[in-house]
Structures are given as structure tokens and as C-alpha cells.
Amino acid sequence: MDRRHRDGALFCLAGALAALLLHPADTAMTLPQLKARIPEGFATGAPLDLDRSSVRELRRLPRIGQKRALDIVRSRWEQGPLGGVDALERIQGIGPQTIEDLRPVLAPD
């Protein structure tokens, strides 16, 4: 598959993921329903693994929205595992301050 087709496939996948993650039904959920969707360990302070987390889990991180979460997943797919918090610098739009803000809630290297 050449780069143009791969990029097109990624664009379609990103759109499908966004449609699933931003479903209007999410806004009508009750508090218990929302709590049930929190990743296991996240509320208890267990660190999140950057190399295994879904877009939905990544979106719950401080300073990480939909676009950055998709960028992280795409980077893992294209360039391989991040291997640690410091590798987030390869994601456009994530700078040193964001990395420091995320360090306490992410699994160590």
C-alpha cells in the first residue's frame, strides 16, 4: 500500500473513530454511566500505559483532547511504541510542559 492510500485509510479510520467517540448519546449519560466508562485503574490513580491505551482513555488525560489522542495512536501505528512519556515530544503540539503535566498519571518508562 503506498503512502497516499495509507493516509486515506488513516483519515477514514480517524473519522470513524471520531464518530464513535463523539456520539451524541454521550452527552445524555448519567453520572453512574459515565463512571462505568472510566478505564479500570484510572480513577484509583493507577498509571496509564501510553502504548496500550485507547483514544478514549487518552482523551481523559490532562491537556489531551480528541486530536492529540488520535495523533498518539497514529504515531504508535506508524512509528512503533512510544516506550515512555518522553517520547511524546514526537507528537506535534505536545511540548515539555504537557509532558511534565502527564508524567504523574502515565506509566513509567
Brief overview:
With 109 residues, the protein is mainly alpha-helical. The chain contains 5 helices and no strands.
Keywords:
single chain; 109 residues; mainly alpha; DNA polymerase, domain 1; 5 helices; 0% strand; globular
Would you spell out the secondary-structure blueprint of this structure?
Layout: H1 3-21, H2 31-36, H3 55-59, H4 66-79, H5 96-102
Would you write up a description of this structure?
By secondary structure, the protein is an all-alpha fold. The chain has one domain (29-105): AF1531-like domain (DNA polymerase, domain 1). It is built from five helices and no strands. The protein has helices at 3-21, 31-36, 55-59, 66-79, 96-102. The longest helix is centred in the N-terminal third of the chain and has 19 residues, at 3-21.
Structural class by helix and strand composition: mainly alpha
Q: Report the top-level CATH class.
A: Mainly Alpha
Largest sheet at a glance? none
Would you give the CATH topology? DNA polymerase, domain 1
Counted by DSSP, the helix tally is 5
- Overall spatial form: globular
Instruction: Indicate the percent of residues in helices.
Output: 40-55%
Number of strands: 0
User: What is the gyration radius calculated from CA atoms?
Assistant: 15 Å
Spans of at least 5 consecutive residues whose pLDDT stays below 50 are none
- What is the succession of H and E elements? HHHHH
- How much β-strand is present in the residues? under 5%
Mean pLDDT: 75
Write the CATH homologous superfamily.
AF1531-like domain
Distance between the termini: 33 Å
User: Which CATH architecture would you pick?
Assistant: Orthogonal Bundle
Count of domain modules: 1
